Predict the 3D structure of the following.
Amino acid sequence: MILAIDGVGGDNAPQAVVAGVMDALQKTDMEIWLYGPQDVLEKELDGYTYDTSKVKVIHCSEVISGEDNPIRAIRAKKDSSLVRAVMDVKEGKADAFVCAGNTGALISAASLLLGRIKGLYRPALTTPIPTDKGMAILLDVGANAECKSEWLQQFAVMGAFYAQKVCDIAQPKVGLVNIGTESGKGNDVAKKAYDLLIHQNDVNFIGNIEARRVPYGDANVIVTDGFTGNVILKMLEGTAEVLFGNVKQVFLQNLKGKLAALMVKSGMKELKQKMDYTEYGGAPVLGVDGIIVKAHGSSDKKAFSSALRQAAKFVESGVMQDIKRYFEQNAISGGAAAETV
Amino acid sequence: MILAIDGVGGDNAPQAVVAGVMDALQKTDMEIWLYGPQDVLEKELDGYTYDTSKVKVIHCSEVISGEDNPIRAIRAKKDSSLVRAVMDVKEGKADAFVCAGNTGALISAASLLLGRIKGLYRPALTTPIPTDKGMAILLDVGANAECKSEWLQQFAVMGAFYAQKVCDIAQPKVGLVNIGTESGKGNDVAKKAYDLLIHQNDVNFIGNIEARRVPYGDANVIVTDGFTGNVILKMLEGTAEVLFGNVKQVFLQNLKGKLAALMVKSGMKELKQKMDYTEYGGAPVLGVDGIIVKAHGSSDKKAFSSALRQAAKFVESGVMQDIKRYFEQNAISGGAAAETV
């Protein structure tokens, strides 16, 4: 299996990328293609001892930064790590691409260069999130700021496949984010999506889920539009950061607190791990015709390593083929294929 | 000042309502009118010693429950505590109404019976939320699941008045919830609202705010549609509940943990208070022509007491008159008054 990775994407590149690659290579059998300026990447690799047959540097002369306009950048910078790696996935040279760089550019490149799966309206950026009951899958988290109900219906199907095959969640419970649990609540898109999903027998739809119950883990697959999904993800992160920061302050405020911190150190460490999204791998762009995984912009070694291993699992699981087969056999009538991205 | 309160609204009524009334009476000079079945309320009051000239029971034969359809209920149950109290506010008999019952029914009653302030498109349910830097104001949290950009523009104005005059936040920083900080991000409503607010010189608009920064308290007034606002509020509550629950588990898991808990008890208590929404009073329905405050459904004595004191401050602040004057003088051109609620 060949995994492509953007060597210069993300806040901590290239150090954390290369460190993550080294970590992943020790844990899983894979070959890594590292995209970016050769001198930068080789200098970073020099610090490690590793099986050189497993890591190849693909020189790219251009870099897409976080500030670049996504569509303009992928059109103008053909020799960027991002565009080159996506093209190698398209041509079947690499099995998957992991990237911590510009999210908009990655989604645009995936949509425009790979295209959508046949029968699908829109791809969805899909992220694993920590909950009280373990990992859940949230989609969309930003590929589509506005969604139609039929898109949400398809997200539910893709999310369920992914949760089951890649995240090992048997019979994943699918919930639709809404501002009340009863049918008929919320905005028009959510109301209609509820009506569609309640009749979708191949998905274990548990109905509407209020945001309050998301962190409890009531649903394994949480379906919503990209605007709301982004808000959910960021509220979870921000609230956890602020609360953990405040708990730390309580422990640090005096000697008694510091002593107490030592006494609960292992328990608090486990808790932080449980709530740490970097433990859960990256965010696949589900619905494009190729395996693309967005790693968090602030990914460290551990996060890159788990994103790579998750991408490997995505490849091995065959879930891509499952999703493609599903939408071929269950094409939702009317215009999906005719619509443009 | 006469404050009306729904004696039978909320999960813990009438006990917590009456307990909250007694607490508030000790802290602020006010007269309380308690609406609901006389026998129920008088039985509850019997347990207390208080200045009987300060508390009056207004007998109502009907009750609107959480399951009632809002509009149908306020039309059918004219002798309910909710409808009777809102009518007394309308007729100027009571200065404000505090209610922990059916949110939809309260908003509908406020909109239909009191009407909107002249020049305003829509009222907004406005809730104080805890942040790392103290209280912030979030609106809308559920009165309008879908909003137009112009409504958000007006919410910003109302929120700023309220934050300044009732919450004592000088020059409140107003942020618009979006999925990126740059202009041009997000859905169409957010994009257009950004363009409107950037030209709104009488509001201290700091631009877009990502959900991640909401718990940090970067903005004092957080403006968004009712769907997103509800999601933000509930994610904040749910995430805090789950994290505090897990921290508690760490402390309880063994003897060392229990000892550690004792050592940081006061610090943790302060932290819980800081993050506890019940400390911050209720959620006013801003924009209707009368002072209506929604208390949290699960309000306890402390929450009712702070909601009552906040309502008293709302009355005393004169912010209602400020908002009315503002929208009279700054009527946004075209159809606001002509639209129906």
